[in-house]
Structures are given as C-alpha cells and as structure tokens.
Amino acid sequence: MSTDYCYLIVPASGIGSRMKADTPKQYLALDNGLTVLDQTLKTLLNIEKIKGCVIALSKHDSHFKDSQFSQHQKLLALAIGGQERYHSVINALNTLKPFAKDSDWVLIHDAARPCIDPADVNQLIQQLKDSPTGGLLATRVVDTIKQADDTLTTATIDRSNLWQAQTPQMYRFGVLLNALTSACEHKINITDEASAIEHIGLQSLLVESSRRNLKITNPEDLALANFYLTTNSHEI
User: Fold this and answer.
1) Residues 197, 176: contact at Cβ < 8 Å?
2) What does pLDDT average to in each consecutive run of 10 residues of the chain (236 residues)?
3) Which residues are bridge partners to 35 per DSSP?
4) Looking at the domain 6-235, which fold is it?
5) CB atoms near residue 61 (< 10 Å)
6) Alpha-carbon Rg for the chain in angstroms
7) Per-residue confidence (pLDDT) for residue 3, from 0 to 100
8) What are phi and psi of 183, to 5 degrees?
9) Residue 168, preceding peptide bond in cis (omega within 30° of 0)
10) CB–CB of 117/94 below 8 Å?
11) CB-CB contact of 173 with 102 (8 Å)
12) Rounded to whole angstroms, how far apart are CA atoms 165 and 178?
C-alpha cells in the first residue's frame, strides 16, 4: 500500500496594506526576533508529518533571501505569487506536482498566522487521515452577528451553525488542484480553499482549534501575536 505524504504550501506574496507599514506584513519583526513568516515556518516545518514545503512569493520579493529558512531542507521550491491568494496557491500546487501524487495531502497555511499551535495541526492531520477530501481548522462563532445595510442593522444571524475558518486547510492534492482550477476557470470569487471545494460540490470537515491562531491583518494584531507567542497557553 502506498504512503500518502503531507506537504505544506504557504502563500506569502501579499503586501498587507491594512498594516500601514513599509514592509509586507509577513516580514514584520516579532518581539522574539523572527519575522512573522519565519515564526510560521519555524512551527510548521518542525512538524514531523510535513515532508516538504512550497512558498509562494511575489516576483518582486527582496526579503526571503535573508530568511533563515531560505535553504531549509524541507523547502522543495519557491512559486510565483498570483494576483489573488488562490492564484498563488494554484501556482504553488503546480510547482509541487513533481513531488506529490493526487492522493497526498497538502496543507495551506497563511503566512500571517504565526501563532499556530502544532498540536492543532497534528490533530487536523489525524482527524482527516481517512477522508477522501479534507477539511480545515476553525473556531465556533461566539459573538452576536449582525447583517447590515452599510452601517444600519437589518438582521441578527443565527450563530449556532457558524464557524470562523482558519488555516491550515488540508486537502488531497488532486482534489484541491481540480477545485481551484475550476473556480479560476469559472471566475468564482473564493477567499479560501474550502470555498473552492464547496464550488465543486464537496464538503470539508471542520476541526476545532485555538483562537490564538489569529491572522495578522491590522496593527493591533501584531501586538496580540507577540503576547500569544510569549505567553503559555495555560496562562490565558
């Protein structure tokens, strides 16, 4: 019986305009001396079950060459980032083709989620190992959610079945490449891999994870990430 391997794709070509910084957010420095991207890679590349990695970078990227992971043994190749995130992921999947077979697993993780807990990633891998498709880390929505017309409320949304998607999102290589290619061909606006999977009529398993796994989007998120990275989980 063949072995299905786990590979990692990290889209890291964005500019992070909402951070209002001169440096792309994935290259901002954390208090521990690592960049956001390097902290993310440090955690994920240390996970034994992840056999190799492809990082999608802007064709104008001038920062990654200085990363301590630019020559890492698990870094299989670099891909060119696309106009949208999913274009970057498609490019990375095509770059991964010489290494992965259709049944292998691919984990896609946002470069700007440096607080990912390896225990959550291992739990995701364990729970999905027999799935024909895949799934993602997510947290249940706990806030009251309002629908609005501009800034005027029009409805309160039932939150009992709502989840907030995180990454990694983990799918079979062949299934994911087919889903993303189809979404691209049909010009479907997708914001994550799970929405591409939904577009081809498949479902994803949700695996509950820590709220610490925040995505750095605004300046205050960087301070919160620094707090999480320097504070043990049992202290929060």
Assistant:
1) yes
2) 85 78 91 97 98 96 96 98 94 98 98 97 97 98 95 95 97 98 92 97 97 94 95 52
3) 29
4) Spore Coat Polysaccharide Biosynthesis Protein SpsA; Chain A (3.90.550)
5) 18
6) 18
7) 78
8) -60, -40
9) yes
10) no
11) yes
12) 21
Find out whether 59 and 29 touch, Cβ atoms under 8 Å. no
What integer pLDDT is reported at residue 195 of this predicted model? 97
CB 90 within 8 A of CB 185: no
Pick the closest to residue 236 from 214, 207, 204 (CA basis).
Answer: 214
Burial of 232 (0-12, 13-18, 19+ CB in 10 A): exposed
Distance of CA 226 to the CA centre of its chain: 19
Q: Which residues contact 184 (CB under 8 A, 6 or more apart)?
A: 86, 87, 90
SS3 102: coil
**For residue 236, what pLDDT is reported?**
40
Q: What is the residue whose two structure tokens read 């990912």?
A: 116
Q: Determine the Cα–Cα distance for residues 121 and 46; give it in Å rounded to an integer.
A: 11
- Burial class, 178, CB count within 10 angstroms (exposed 0-12 / middle 13-18 / buried 19+): middle
Which amino acid is residue 76, in one-letter code?
L
The pLDDT score that the predictor gives to residue 103 is 97
Give CA–CA dist 8/27, Å, rounded: 19
User: The pTM is what?
Assistant: 0.94
Alpha helices for the chain (secondary structure H): 36-45, 85-96, 118-128, 173-185, 193-199, 219-230
Residue 231: predicted pLDDT: 82
Q: Which structure tokens are listed for 180?
A: 């993303």
